[in-house]
Amino acid sequence: MNSTFLDNSLFRNIYCYLAGGSDGCASRGYDTAILPAGFEWLAFAITAFIIINIVINAGLGAVIVYIWGERRILGRIQNRTGPNRWGPFGMFTSVADAIKTLFKEDIVPDEADRWLFNLAPILMVFPVLMVLAVIPFGVGTFVVDINVGILFVIAVTSVSGISVVLASWASGNRISIFAGMRSVAMLISYEIPMALSLIGVLMLAGSMSLGAIVEAQDLPFILVQPLGLFVFLIAAQAETSRTPFDLIEAESELAAGYLNDYSSMKFGIFFLAEFLATIVASMLIVTLFLGGWRGWDPIPSQVWFAGKTVLVLLFIMWMRFSWPRLRVDQILVLAWKGLFELTLINIFVTAILIAIWPDPGMTELLIMSVINWIVFFISVWLVSKLLRPSDYSAPTPQPNRPAYPVATDELPDEVAYTGGATR
Amino acid sequence: MNAAFDSGPIATLAFYLASALTIASALIVVTQRDLVRAVVALAMSFVGVAAIYFILNAEFIGVVQLLVYVGAISILIAFAVMFIGDLANAGTLSQSRLISAVAAILLLATVIFVAYNTDWTDIKDVTDADAVAGLTGRYEVAGTSDDKNVISAVNSDVEDSRGGALVDGSSHIGPALISDFVLPFETLGLLLIAALIGALLVIRGRQKDDAA
What is the reported pTM? Predict the structure, then answer.
């Protein structure tokens, strides 16, 4: 048996309970064997099935809790109550929503390509669940730790683009196709800074395996790689289409974008994929930049991981509730002219620092982090200067006018604000 | 990776499932009249190939297959297909059946030729202990002669060591790209830049035509 699987304590406990006689388990002190010798493959299959079920169902449960939490906090931040009727603190609202979604009528439009229309939601949720498979949730608590973990995450998330194209195309209506076109432009653009922002982490950790990256973080990489975290946070928001970047749905412009024609549980699956993607993105941020499951001793590592994930989720929610949606051109300019340069600066500076200290100890890491933070502030300031439109001047307040637009019969003689277009 | 598990029923079953997925979706690609559906089937076929790479422990190549073919090329093809105006008659795009047939037969002949001329020796068939050690990563460098590392098998219990050469191939790709294969690598880079500029030129030219 591959030792990678037996390092996994969850896997080992179930597998060795079923097939204790096999060599890997016997050397670790397991001697109960339910299955006869020669049936290790069956034990492997049963164990894998159980673990996959646990992880997927935990993920789905987390989505239910997350939706409730997000609506409550949205209410608090925007000075209203949020869901509070059904259950204590409105806790059962999400459950009721899920049940309602399940029992709604499932409509497929006449214009739709039925085959692709049904395939698109499956393709949407598949990559998110695949990413869940490589994240280390705690000491020895993971599904599988493959040695190209980061590359796997980037590769699998890139599949979600094709499901958006499919959903928009298969619906057979124009608004959906508009949404599909511009959202794919956005998804492809943000994949590049997202992948490049992780190269600094790779160079510091010396491995692409997520487990090894967590173990390499004697100093959390948020200190050593501020620029990488900054770019990854923004790009992950765009990839999961949270609000500053929610071009894909854009309720006020495109009805609901690519999922216009979806109803019932197919809509529910898209919804679920989006929220699960947000949770998975914050788990990735925790794993790559905040030290993963590392923490101080009396508290178990899994609790540390969950706590850090909740903190990152709160930060992402805060961003979502505070900022309005950007325009298409602004989003693409930010990706190509802003984040792309920042990642290149980050790679360059980190490479030089690693060339100076090939095997950094704690002191060298601290020096590195000071240098990287200085570089972070200077480069973000420079790029924001570059991206600022040259012809922009803040509208001067005019005392005669009301502070808010008032409907009149005639057109205004001048337009105070011409927009922040950068081209 | 223990040989007992590698040849176990699950690995075999997974291999046949992945092969079935690849072949079935490839058949759909050539028989399906609807181009968008054909693109989806093509993406499925790529996923099947990636799965086979994973079963063969070539994780890096499998992941790159997913990233490049499924994540990028399929989306590009889907875009191109959607911009073709007359989708109903798009199935008859190939005008000269003779040329297509010749090209397909040449490609098939190449693949068969390569398949027959490759050394398909399995690790199980290798009897030399040093060679097995090199393939599975259970080796140490015994000495150096004429800038070649002499490796020999490690006799200790290797149950807990992760395999080297076969399992962790990805770390050897980077050094190889900037030492032995630097010329092909740079040539490919040049080719890609040429393709990029060409694509931009095609688009710009069309935009000028539209404006005129």
Answer: 0.80
